[in-house]
Design a protein that fits this description.
The protein has 299 residues and is α+β, with helices and mostly antiparallel strands. 28% of the residues lie in helices and 26% in strands. It has helices at 44-48, 66-79, 87-100, 136-141, 156-159, 173-184, 228-239, 251-255, 284-296, and strands at residues 8-12, 29-32, 51-59, 62-63, 106-114, 124-131, 143-149, 189-193, 206-211, 214-217, 243-246, 259-264, 268-275, 278-279. The mean pLDDT is 96. The structure holds pyridoxal-5'-phosphate.
Length: 299
């Protein structure tokens, strides 16, 4: 590709070293036109949602929390019993794709690996990079959330691992359906609650909240994602001398918190300004400093 691009697609030749390449002897990845169809209609990612993905923030051309994202990508693959992604090949494709993009202050990378075409034992993999849309309003004004029952107990990751809770799978139809339900309830976003009443995560975010001098999150082991942004929020808070911790929280623990945020790559920290119609205080100074910190991250 000779010119810089407004969005970039790289297709991996061999997404996993444990499976055959698509073209023997070809380079690790090739750039392709993201405006043209590239995926087979027989790909299990498209027909069954059988695959995994990551969304990574890029600040001024630097992928943030890249190694954490790659670790989680590998962990999602293991949960789905997909061939292990070749992380060196993925890292190279990600970095090269970012380099191809027209320079912008904020962009994002999506990595997708599917089980490929049924019967071929050859995963499909691609990296897509594009500028980020403007999230400044949601980062300052925040979101009104509703708590919705996810319908599973908080311990299903251990009791029913075949449900793939805690893996970042392509099967996000439910995560989108709940946003439509939120809209019907005059809200912007959702916090999932387990059927036995514990706070889990948002459909595309981790939940972080403040009680006094402590910044808390439900943490892992509850069938929720190991959030890369949540980890960086904790580092930021610890740098300010705040205590951080994981806590099995009930709905009321969250309602009674001093402040709460939905945190994720790309959108970063969105303060929660109402839960189920009840207003919640927004800590504008802390939120502003937190988002500035997340935007400036270089790792
Ligand atoms: N939980 C879910 C279900 C998500 O989809 C995401 C991100 O998309 C997160 C949590 C937050 O993860 P991260 O901060 O690594 O983006």
């Amino acid at each position: 590709m000779e010119q810089m691009a407004l969005h970039v697609l790289a297709i991996l030749n061999q997404p996993s070293a444990d499976a055959a390449p698509h073209a023997a002897g070809a380079p690790a990845f090739r750039f392709a036109d993201p405006g043209e169809p590239q995926l087979s209609v027989l790909d299990l990612g498209a027909t069954r949602g059988d695959g995994i993905f990551e969304s990574i923030s890029v600040g001024n051309g630097r992928a943030q929390a890249l190694e954490h994202h790659l670790r989680r990508f590998a962990s999602s693959a293991a949960k789905l019993e997909l061939p292990a992604p070749d992380l060196d090949a993925w890292r190279a494709a990600i970095l090269a794709s970012i380099d191809e993009l027209d320079p912008v202050s904020e962009s994002w990378v999506k990595t997708v690996m599917t089980r490929g075409i049924e019967g071929h034992d050859q995963p499909t993999g691609w990296v897509y990079v594009a500028p980020t849309s403007d999230f400044s309003k949601v980062r300052t004004e925040g979101v009104r959330v509703v708590m919705l029952d996810r319908g599973y107990r908080h311990d299903i990751e251990h009791t029913a691992p075949w449900l793939l809770a805690g893996a970042k799978t392509l099967s996000y139809a439910v995560n989108r359906a709940v946003l439509r339900e939120a809209k019907r309830r005059d809200a912007d976003d959702v916090i999932f609650v387990s059927s036995d009443g514990f706070v889990l995560e948002g459909p595309t975010s981790s939940v972080v909240y403040r009680r006094g001098d402590r910044i808390l999150t439900p943490g892992t082991g509850l069938g929720i994602l190991d959030g890369t942004t949540q980890a960086n929020v904790f580092r930021f808070a610890e740098g300010l001398g705040l205590e951080t911790g994981f806590e099995l929280a009930r709905e009321d623990d969250l309602r009674e918190a001093d402040a709460a945020w939905l945190v994720s790559s790309v959108r970063l920290a969105a303060p929660v300004r109402a839960i189920d119609g009840r207003p919640m205080a927004v800590d504008a100074d802390f939120t502003g400093a937190l988002n500035a910190h997340l935007l400036a991250l270089r790792d």
